[in-house]
Design goal:
The protein has an eight-stranded mixed beta sheet with strand order 1-5-6-11-10-9-7-8, sandwiched between helices. It has 14 helices and 16 strands. Strand 9 and strand 10 form a beta hairpin. The chain has two domains: about 250 residues, BirA Bifunctional Protein, domain 2 (2-Layer Sandwich); about 90 residues, Anticodon-binding domain (Rossmann fold, 3-Layer(aba) Sandwich), CATH 3.40.50. With about 425 residues, it is of the alpha+beta class. The mean pLDDT is about 90.
């Protein structure tokens, strides 16, 4: 065993799993582009204050899960634990409010949270996320949520269900928080220690508790939906109605919250019921106050973040990952050292034509090269320098059928394509 190993909760992704990752990420990017989202890339680290303000000091992420350190100038930096705060920081910093609105962006990015590792959840994980900035209308909520749902459905997870709630806005939430606190104060002695603290600092986070007794108490708590102002109620009803128009099942779930003052209205999770108790695949919501908190102009925003490790795990369990061939298609062999340069030239021709091709790097015999060709998973082997062949000819061997024929070397790319060899973008 190696003396050094990857840190706990972080993992190496090796072939062929890396090929499944390429397929999954490519599928997410393709769907985002269909919906008119463009990619944004933010730094892996941010000033810690971005997350203190952008995620919230009373959250588990900030209190317990962030990787925070000081740089050589003594500034506090943190590895990003989620994507939204950094995206909104970039929106403010670069004056993106002056762009045509709304701004629709997506990301596929690594996140870091110091949490207990479990199946499909790691301390370093990858999120596919999308944000709509500058659109207050419920159409934006539906647009971003339907992007996520349709992505999962396109991957084969067709039975996904949206769990939806509203957390109101600064106009109607204060009255709700008063009755909410009064309710939990009556059950104070039965609350876990974290929930007692949150009752003072950030009461809505109590609804996120994983302690079963607290969750049982929470099921009887007053519902924010019963205290919404007319505008928030209309927004919520419009989101539900539009999702139903799209044929996306919706379940009203009063336990879903975004327990920070600048989160508003829509709070959503998407579940795959076949997973049972751990059925959540992603969450999202509206955060109309976040840009102001980070020093920008008032800007409505809504988005989601989806952990791809968990999605890939579910796809594999459901048998929904297609057979993928990320290896080489052609292996070029040669008869001996005198043919080495000719084999190198042909290998370059194939690669420049968009064919995934490989060749010998160890000076092996032709027999050993053919064995390497079979182990590589290539469909075809090309033999350069075979006896009795005229100049410009090579042997093309079908490793699956066991058949071979002499062909013109210059015609190889075309012949391979006719034989079903899919070519990538060719280089000039």
């Amino acid at each position: 065993m190696s003396k050094y190993q990857a840190p706990r909760g972080m993992r190496d992704v090796l072939p062929p799993e890396s090929e499944r990752w390429q397929w999954l990420v490519s599928s997410c990017r393709e769907m985002a582009h269909r919906y008119g989202y463009r990619e944004i890339r933010t730094p892996l680290v941010e000033h810690t204050e971005v997350f203190l303000k952008g995620v919230g000091e009373g959250t588990d992420i900030v209190e317990h899960e962030m990787y925070t350190f000081s740089d050589r100038a003594g500034r506090s930096l943190s590895l990003r634990p989620e994507g939204t705060a950094g995206v909104v920081r970039a929106y403010v910093e670069h004056g993106m409010h002056t762009w045509p609105q709304p701004v629709k962006v997506y990301y596929v990015a690594e996140m870091f949270r110091y949490d207990r590792p479990q199946a499909g959840r790691y301390r370093q994980h990858t999120q596919f996320g999308a944000e709509v900035l500058g659109a207050p209308d419920p159409a934006a909520d539906v647009d971003v949520l339907s992007l996520a749902v349709r992505t999962l459905q396109a991957l084969g997870l067709r039975e996904v269900r949206v769990h939806l709630n509203s957390v109101g806005d600064p106009k109607c939430r204060p009255g709700y928080l008063q009755v909410f606190r009064e309710y939990f104060q009556r059950h104070y002695d039965r609350l876990d220690e974290d929930s007692r603290r949150r009752l003072v600092t950030n009461p809505l986070r109590i609804l996120d508790s994983k302690v079963e007794q607290t969750r049982e108490i929470a099921r009887g708590a007053p519902r924010m939906l019963d205290y919404l102002c007319a505008e928030c109620r209309a927004h919520f009803d419009a989101v539900v109605r539009r999702l139903e128009v799209l044929g996306i099942p919706v379940e009203v779930d009063p336990l879903i919250v975004r327990g920070l003052d600048y989160y508003t209205r829509t709070a959503a999770e998407v579940h795959y019921p076949k997973l049972g108790a751990q059925s959540t695949l992603f969450g999202g919501g509206r955060y109309d106050g976040l840009a102001e908190v980070l020093g920008g102009p008032p800007t409505p925003g809504v988005g989601f973040g989806m952990g791809l490790e968990r999605v890939l795990m579910v796809l594999e369990e459901e048998g929904l990952v297609p057979e993928l061939s990320g290896g080489v298609q052609v292996y070029v062999c040669h008869q001996g050292p005198e043919w080495d340069e000719e084999a190198l030239r042909l290998l370059d021709v194939l690669r420049r034509a968009g064919v995934r091709a490989d060749g010998d790097l160890l000076g092996r015999s032709l027999r050993a090269q053919l064995r390497a060709a079979s182990r590589s998973g290539a469909r075809w082997a090309v033999l350069v320098g075979a006896a009795d062949l005229p100049a410009g000819k090579v042997v093309l061997r079908d490793l699956q059928a066991g058949e071979q024929r002499a062909v013109d070397a210059d015609q190889l790319p075309q012949l391979l394509e006719e034989g079903g060899c899919e070519r990538t973008g060719a280089a000039s």
